[in-house]
């Protein structure tokens, strides 16, 4: 794990996810772009395969977290916020039921 191709694949995946998650938010898009590039640049000379595997795991976890947990919000007033969930975020939405199902 940790070949150059895999690292570049993760780098691209993070940028694609950033573009989807922070769509129409120029400040967040730029901040995320800078952070991704900075983290990869800071570790570009890493040679330890264990450390590279650890960094790849962290990067992969961050990509999943961004894709599955971040929702955009838009200020609509001084004390209100309108949430803008992405369609792929709502697919796993299951209604809560506090009564256990009956056994047949």
TrEMBL record:
Coiled-coil ranges from the UniProt annotation: 19-46
Pfam families xrefs: Complex1_LYR
Gene Ontology CC: mitochondrial matrix; mitochondrial membrane
Keyword line: Chaperone, Coiled coil, Mitochondrion
Stretches assigned to the Complex 1 LYR protein domain: 6-60
Secretion signal, residue range per the UniProt entry: none
GO aspect biological process, one term: cellular respiration
Subcellular location: Mitochondrion matrix
Chief localization: mitochondrion
Chaperone among keywords: yes
Matching InterPro entries: Complex1_LYR_dom, Complex1_LYR_LYRM7, MZM1/LYRM7
Any one GO molecular function term: protein folding chaperone
Family: Belongs to the complex I LYR family.
Function summary: Assembly factor required for Rieske Fe-S protein UQCRFS1 incorporation into the cytochrome b-c1 (CIII) complex. Functions as a chaperone, binding to this subunit within the mitochondrial matrix and stabilizing it prior to its translocation and insertion into the late CIII dimeric intermediate within the mitochondrial inner membrane.
Quaternary context: Interacts with UQCRFS1.
Protein name (database record): Complex III assembly factor LYRM7
């Amino acid at each position: 794990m940790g070949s150059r191709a895999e690292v570049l694949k993760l780098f691209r995946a993070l940028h694609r996810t950033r573009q989807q998650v922070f769509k129409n938010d120029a400040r967040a898009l730029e901040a995320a772009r800078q952070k991704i590039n900075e983290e990869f640049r800071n570790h570009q000379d890493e040679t330890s395969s264990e450390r590279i595997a650890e960094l790849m795991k962290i990067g992969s976890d961050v990509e999943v977290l961004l894709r599955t947990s971040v929702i955009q919000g838009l200020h609509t007033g001084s004390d209100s916020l309108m949430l803008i969930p992405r369609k792929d975020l709502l697919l796993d939405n299951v209604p809560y039921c506090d009564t256990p199902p009956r056994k047949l």
